[in-house]
Amino acid sequence: MKRRFRCPVETKKELVVEVLAGYRVEMVARKHGMSPKTLSNWVRQYQDEVDDLMKKKQIDAEKLKQNAASYEDLQKKYDSAMKLLGEKELENNILRDLVKKKYPDWK
């Protein structure tokens, strides 16, 4: 009697993604304890759906890269603003000390 390999559609699609990412069908099938023929059938069956998902993930990855670049720009601006703020606070403290020396009763 033949053993049937049953698993959810999401799992099947994940295995198809592995194959489409560049791994050999035989390697992925043996890694998960199944027949390469079954996995090949799943690849044919779900390839179009998975391709759409992979393209969407690539677009999301590109957006993340763009966000990372803009984040780095914001971080540089923030660092320069904090440096400027630190310089201004230091200048304020120096001026307060000078005012206190000239007017000791001043708060």
Structure, described:
The structure is a single chain. The chain is mainly α. It has a domain at 9-78. 80% of the residues lie in helices and 0% in strands. The radius of gyration is 31 Å and the shape is rod-shaped. The model has no long low-confidence stretch (mean pLDDT 85).
Q: How do the strands and helices of this protein lay out in sequence?
A:
Layout: H1 9-20, H2 25-31, H3 36-102
Helix pairs in contact: 1-3, 2-3
Keywords:
Transposase_8, 3 helices, transposase activity, 107 residues, mainly alpha
User: Count of DSSP helices?
Assistant: 3
- State the oligomer: single chain
Distance between the termini: 94 Å
The helix/strand series, from N terminus to C terminus, equals HHH
Beta-strand share of residues: under 5%
Low-pLDDT ranges: none
- Number of strand elements: 0
